[in-house]
Design brief:
Elements (H helix, E strand, L loop, with lengths): L3 E2 L24 E8 L3 E9 L10 H5 L2 E3 L2 E5 L5 E4 L1 H14 L7 H14 L11 E10 L11 E11 L10 E5 L17 H5 L2 H9 L4 E5 L7 E4 L2 E7 L2 E4 L10 H12 L4 E3 L4 H10 L2 E8 L3 E10 L2 E4 L7 H14 L10 E3 L1
Parallel strand pairs: 1-3, 9-10, 9-16, 13-14
Antiparallel strand pairs: 2-3, 2-8, 4-7, 5-6, 5-7, 6-18, 7-8, 10-11, 11-12, 12-13, 12-15, 15-16, 16-17
Helix pairs in contact: 2-3
Bound molecules: 2-OXO-4-methylpentanoic acid (COI).
2-OXO-4-methylpentanoic acid binds next to loops.
Length: 354
């Protein structure tokens, strides 16, 4: 397939004050688009001006949520170069999500090349300030107009770009976590490990409950026993418990986070013992009080590393340590971002330079 590059007519003004960048509100001038038709496969790949699509109201995505997405980032380095972090891993996960949602796979090397080509054309949109980046959102939706419940025979795949600041308004500030004792995000055998919109839609009700109680994010428990901590919808959770790193194992209900993987590699190299095991909510709540749990943080592309300041569960709320970001959490944040922004050597070949 040949990638067609269409001209843009009215480039938008670039971000004037990077300190005011918020997450995911502004988009660049161009996007990548390609279509799929059963029998023909993927076709018409192109980079075109960013703008709305015209879709049939019966398009299957609107009714049965056959949709997947990815999130990755491009970083501006001090020397002006632009670096992507583990992009091939995101493309591979896109295809794993596609498989789970009965959607067609993309050709990974073609898709990665198209993504890199798009970033090259939009490189001026990669912001410069510390903590900023260009967030990349590959997406696939089912477009066949049809109300029967079955996989669509037509799809649209696109990539949009958004210059972003920190995911949470307060930057790397501790988040307050609400542990849901009733609502669940994912069940074994469900779609929890696929990056599909329905998982996020299903999380909104409990997130609203958390917000009404003054909490930032929901930590989900397992659906069977409501006993083991799993993940926060926008990030995986890691705990420093008894001096070891504990995180839930990947058993289909938790997203196989690329930042999670990177964090575990770095923590292992820093000499920490890693336990991928089911951690109970009691261990978290009691551990925060008796000092066995000293730090907890989320990992994710959007958040990078996000320290936890407190947990609330069934009306009992505990602060972690002195409520400020933990020493290890910040050390990990510094190491990971140093690799992303090119201040530390990329010993794992995680970085792709444009
Ligand atoms: C990411 O970290 O890229 C995510 O996909 C989380 C998102 C839903 C904001």
């Amino acid at each position: 397939m040949d990638l067609q590059i269409l001209p843009i007519e009215n480039p938008k003004p670039k971000v004037s004050d990077e300190n005011k960048l918020v997450f995911g509100k502004q988009f660049t001038d161009r996007m990548f688009v390609m279509e799929y038709d059963g029998g023909r496969g993927w076709h018409s790949p192109r980079i075109q001006p960013y703008g709305p699509f015209s879709l049939d109201p019966a398009a299957m995505v609107f009714h049965y949520s056959q949709e997947i997405f990815e999130g990755l980032k491009a970083f501006r380095r001090a020397d002006g170069q632009v670096a992507l972090f583990r992009p091939a891993d995101n493309v591979a996960r896109f295809n794993r999500s596609a498989r789970r949602m009965c959607m067609p796979a993309v050709d990974e090397s073609f898709f990665l090349d198209a993504l890199l080509q798009l970033i090259r054309l939009e490189a001026d949109w990669v912001p410069h300030n510390e903590g900023t980046s260009l967030y990349i959102r590959p997406t696939m939706i089912a477009t066949e107009p049809m109300l029967g419940v079955r996989p669509s025979s037509q799809y649209l795949c696109y990539i949009i770009l958004s210059p972003v600041g920190a995911y949470y308004k307060g930057g790397v500030a501790p988040v307050k976590i609400w542990i849901s004792d009733f609502y669940v995000r994912a069940t074994e055998g469900g779609t929890g490990e696929a990056k599909t919109g329905g998982n996020y839609a299903a999380s909104l009700y409990a997130a609203k409950e958390a917000a009404e109680n003054g909490y930032d994010q929901v930590l989900w428990l397992d659906a069977k026993e409501r006993r083991y901590v799993e993940e926060v919808g926008s990030m995986n959770m890691l705990f420093l418990y008894d001096g070891k790193i504990v995180t839930s194992p990947l058993r289909g209900t938790v997203l196989d986070g690329i930042t999670r993987r990177s964090a575990l590699t770095l923590l292992d190299e820093m000499g920490y013992q890693i336990e991928e095991r089911a951690l109970t909510v009691d261990e978290v709540m009691e551990g925060a009080q008796n000092g066995r749990l000293t730090e907890a943080f989320g990992t994710g592309t959007a958040v990078v590393i996000s320290p936890v300041g407190s947990f609330c569960y069934k009306g009992s709320c505990v602060q972690l340590g002195d409520g400020r970001p933990g020493r290890l959490t910040m050390e990990l944040y510094d190491r990971l971002t140093a690799i992303q922004y090119g201040k530390e050597a990329d010993r794992h070949q995680w970085v792709t330079l444009l």
